[in-house]
Each structure stands twice: as C-alpha cells, then as structure tokens.
C-alpha cells in the first residue's frame, strides 16, 4: 500500500477520533452539572453509543449507569433499551452468556409493554447470538418468533431484514436451496419498496449462495447486476469494493485468473477510496490463495506479505485510536484534578486566615481549627487518589481491548470472506 495513502488514512482517522473525543468531553462536562435523572440517562446513553463500536467494554459502563438510573425512576422502556444496548456490547466482546442474558431481559420488558417493533429486533438479536455459536436450532426458533411478529406489523424493512437473515443463516448451514428461497423473497421485497441499497445487498447474497453451490456463471450474473446498480449510486465505494471482491473470488473459483486479478485490483482501488483496510486485506488474501492454487508461489508470497503488512497497520491504527481516546479521558481527569487543587488552594487560604483568628482566640480554638484544616486536606487527597485509580483503570481497559483485537479482526475477515 502506498505509504502516503496510508498516512492520509491514519490522519483522517486520528482527526475523527479527536473530534469525537471532544464531543464526549463536552457530554461529560454537562453530566457533571446535570441533576435531572432523565437527562442523565440520555447523556449516559449518548456516551455509551459513542463507545459502543470502538470500546464496547467501556460502553457497557455507561449503559449500566443509565440502566441503574432508569430502575430508580421506574422507566421500563429505558430499562429495556439499555439491556438491549448492553446485550449488543457483550455480543461484540464475544461474551455470549452476558449478551443473551441482557437481550432476554429486554425481551421480557418489550413484551410487557406490547412494543412489537422493538421486540422483533430483540428476538433477531438473540438469533444472532445463537448463530454466532452455531446453535442453528435456537437461531431458527428466534427467527421464526421474530417473523411472526413482523408479519403482523407489515413493516417491509423489517420483513426484508428477517428474510435476508434467515437466508444467510441457511447458507451457513449449506442448505443452499432453502437459503435461495428466503433470499429471493427478501429481494422481492427490496424491489417492491424500491430500496436500491437493499436490492444490491440481496443480489450480492444470492450471488454468494450460488458461488457456494459452485454455480459460478449464475453467481457472476447476480454480482454484475448488483454492480451495475451500485455504480449508479453516489458515494458507495465500500459496496463497490465488496462487489468487485465477490466477482474476483467467483472468477478465481472458476479458474479465470486474469479476470479475477482485474476484479481484485478494482476492489483494492475502491477499498482505498472507502478507507477500508479490512476490504483491502481480504483482496490480498484472496489473491494469495488464488496464486497458491495455481502453484505460483512467488505471487502467493508477495500478496500474503501485503496482507500481513496491512494487518499490522490496522492494529497500529487501532492502538493509536485507543491511545487518543485514553489521552482524552486522562485530560478530562487531569482538568478535574486541577480544579480540585485550585479549590484546595482557595480552601487553604481561607483556613490560613481562619487559623490566624483562631490563634488570637486561644490554644483550644487553635487545635480545633487545625483539626478542621487537616480533615479538609485529607479529603482532597483522598479524592485525588480516587481519580488516579480511575485513570489507571482506563489504562487497563486499553490493555484488555488489545487482548481481544485478533478475535474481532477474525470476525470481520470471516464476514467478508463469506
């Protein structure tokens, strides 16, 4: 990858992270002075939503705070929504037991509130937990429960989503004909509501299923049709990159090496435009596999090296992002510490003046004043120590995140590869 392009991507990512960190900083400042519990819940949710995709462990802390307050003021919908968000975060972390527990809590409340729309979403999320564990029986059960509700709601977007999800899960089980039946139904809905983004997704998924059936010609027909629609849409480099990757993989499967290489190169081009390092990596891995299959080991090694170079850069970028986030949090704590110190200095000045007065009043008053002074300073020191503990805790969170990075990366790669 061109070093200048990589540097530009890293710079843009850093700018975005800093801007978001400033937003979180402002939310935390508002939170410090907010007294209304309902407003605090909203603030905790907004901060949790920020951390949800880049630090789910930290997001859970804010959603838990919102959940506790929602229980205090007895807001059932807020309680359910925060259980749902916590369930999503645990699913991202790979903690399926905690994810399932929180999703089930949200389901119970949505059922009691007769909130069918949110209930169907929660049921589909539980199906995702089970499919992640290859428990397809429970996956199917929860998909069917969600489908029954969605059919009564007559919500086209949700109906498209559940049918597409069922088709994808059936494809994972290699039940390709059943998968195609559901994917075709979801495609028909997307066509009926004229949602091009959904149409493109459906065509791509149908093409992948035909690819898995090794019906390469049919797969390429669907990929090309999706590509034609995607080219008409504005600002879809990520979708174009994925489609060209699928086209390249289908051609490689059919032994059309030249066409596959052209498609992979196009995918890499659009992947760079979208700033998607995982998509670039998938192309380099596919190219490496393709040349390995034809025993061109020099090219296989060349593209495999590119793959690992980008993998390293992805982790480096993520570490920088985490450090930027940690630095932002540290600065907030540092500012709070400075405020405490200033308050301590003001208090110290007041106590010194009081001490002078007390000295003129006698030794008993002096001892009382000194005791009061010592107590206040001790309290300030205790507060500073607590804040230092919080800063160290945030540093530990960064180490924990790095520990799960390879797992998260493998999930991304698996999704792209399939």
Summarize the entry for a quick read.
The protein is an all-alpha fold. 89% of the residues lie in helices and 0% in strands.
Determine the number of helices (DSSP H or I, runs of at least 4 residues). 17
Q: How would you spell out the order of helices and strands?
A: HHHHHHHHHHHHHHHHH
Strand % is under 5%
Roughly what is the average pLDDT, rounded to an integer? 78
Topology, element by element:
Elements lengths: L2 H31 L3 H15 L4 H17 L3 H18 L2 H18 L2 H17 L3 H18 L2 H17 L3 H17 L3 H17 L3 H17 L4 H18 L2 H18 L2 H17 L3 H65 L1 H41 L1 H13 L1
Describe this structure in words.
There is one protein chain. The protein is mainly α and 418 residues long. It has helices spanning 3-33, 37-51, 56-72, 76-93, 96-113, 116-132, 136-153, 156-172, 176-192, 196-212, 216-232, 237-254, 257-274, 277-293, 297-361, 363-403, 405-417. Helix 2 (37-51) packs antiparallel against helix 3 (56-72) and helix 8 (156-172) packs antiparallel against helix 9. The radius of gyration is 28 Å and the shape is globular. The model is unreliable at 1-19, 323-337, 353-374 and 400-418 (pLDDT under 50).
């Amino acid at each position: 990858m061109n070093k200048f392009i990589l540097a530009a991507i890293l710079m843009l990512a850093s700018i975005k992270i800093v801007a978001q960190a400033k937003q979180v900083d402002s939310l935390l400042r508002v939170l410090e002075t907010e007294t209304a519990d309902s407003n605090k819940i909203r603030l905790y949710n907004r901060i949790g939503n920020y951390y949800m995709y880049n630090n789910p462990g930290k997001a859970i802390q804010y959603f838990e705070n919102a959940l506790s307050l929602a229980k205090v003021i007895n807001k059932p919908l807020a309680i359910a929504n925060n259980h749902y968000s916590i369930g999503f975060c645990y699913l991202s972390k790979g903690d399926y037991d905690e994810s399932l527990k929180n999703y089930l809590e949200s389901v119970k409340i949505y059922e009691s509130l007769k909130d069918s729309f949110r209930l169907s979403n929660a049921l589909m999320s539980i199906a995702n937990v089970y499919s992640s564990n290859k428990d397809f029986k429970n996956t199917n059960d929860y998909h069917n429960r969600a489908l029954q509700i969605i059919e009564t709601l007559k919500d086209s977007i949700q109906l498209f989503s559940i049918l597409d999800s069922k088709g994808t899960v059936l494809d994972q089980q290699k039940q390709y004909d059943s998968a195609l039946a559901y994917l075709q139904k979801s495609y028909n809905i997307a066509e009926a509501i004229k949602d091009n983004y959904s149409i493109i997704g459906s065509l791509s998924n149908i093409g992948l299923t035909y690819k898995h059936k090794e019906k390469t010609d049919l797969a390429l027909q669907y990929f090309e049709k999706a590509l034609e629609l995607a080219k008409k849409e504005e600002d879809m480099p990520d979708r174009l990159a994925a489609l060209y990757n699928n086209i390249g993989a289908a051609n490689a499967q059919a032994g059309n090496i030249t066409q596959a290489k052209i498609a992979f190169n196009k995918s890499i081009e659009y992947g760079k435009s979208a700033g998607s390092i995982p998509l670039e990596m998938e192309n380099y891995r596919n190219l490496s596999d393709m040349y390995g299959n034809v025993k061109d080991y020099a090219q296989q090694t060349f593209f495999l090296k590119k793959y690992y170079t980008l993998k390293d850069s992805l982790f480096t970028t993520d570490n920088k992002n985490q450090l930027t986030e940690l630095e932002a949090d540290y600065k907030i704590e540092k500012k709070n510490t400075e405020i405490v110190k200033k308050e301590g200095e003001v208090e110290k000045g007041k106590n010194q003046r009081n001490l002078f007065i007390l000295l003129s009043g006698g030794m008993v008053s002096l001892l009382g004043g000194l005791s009061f002074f010592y107590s206040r300073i001790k309290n300030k020191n205790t507060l500073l120590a607590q804040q230092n503990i919080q800063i160290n805790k945030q540093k530990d969170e960064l180490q924990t995140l790095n520990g799960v990075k390879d797992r998260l990366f493998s999930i991304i790669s698996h999704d792209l590869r399939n």
